[in-house]
Specification:
It is a single chain. This protein has helices at about 10-20, 65-70, 80-85, 125-135, and strands at about 5-10, 25-30, 35-40, 50-60, 90-105, 120-125, 145. It is globular. It has a single domain, classed as Hypothetical protein (Archaeosine Trna-guanine Transglycosylase, Chain: A, domain 4, Roll), CATH 2.30.130.30. The chain is about 20% helix and about 35% strand. Strands 1, 2, 3, 4, 5, 6 and 7 form a 7-stranded mixed sheet that branches. A hairpin with a 5-residue loop joins strand 3 (about 35-40) and strand 4 (about 50-60). The chain is of the alpha+beta class.
Length: about 150
């Protein structure tokens, strides 16, 4: 059975917007459509796992259509968005259902990965793996994201 959990590298400025509720979508040129959970790896300067996201759904359409559907809660400017998808026929938006922010960031080794993913990497769906990431402490209960 194929895993529905991936580890995804996200820049810290975008992670902070997810935590604040400003950003309810994460945009990608390529992403599996059936993912359920994302283990969030914060890129430099943090270089650690900082959160677990529960995915509501993945939207796939033209960049123009995705922007129209997500712009109010994109956490980015239209210029940034269009520049990212320039020359692409398809855009993907991962809609965030909820997240758990870890109190103590974890190293990639806790999920058996040595190097940060350039795009995404499947990891085991196992409860044990996700428990290992968030066992000790997390910064609070999982936060449901609510669209305004």
């Amino acid at each position: 059975m194929k895993s529905k959990t991936i580890i995804l590298s996200i820049h810290p400025c975008h992670i902070e917007k997810i935590f604040s509720g400003e950003k309810l979508y994460e945009f990608r040129k390529i992403i599996p459509s059936d993912i359920q959970k994302i283990v969030v790896y914060a890129t430099s300067p943090i270089k650690k796992i900082v959160a677990i996201i529960e995915v509501e759904k993945v939207l796939t359409d033209t960049p123009e259509s995705i922007w129209k559907q997500t712009c109010k809660h994109s956490g980015v400017t239209k210029e940034f968005f269009m520049s990212y998808f320039r020359g692409k026929e398809k855009a993907n938006a991962i809609k965030i259902k909820s997240f758990i922010k870890l109190k103590e960031p974890k190293s990639l080794s806790c999920v058996g990965i040595k190097n940060a993913p350039q795009s995404f990497v499947y990891i085991l769906d196992s409860y044990d793996v996700l428990k290992k990431i968030s066992t000790d402490e997390y910064a609070g209960k999982s936060r449901r994201v609510q669209e305004l």
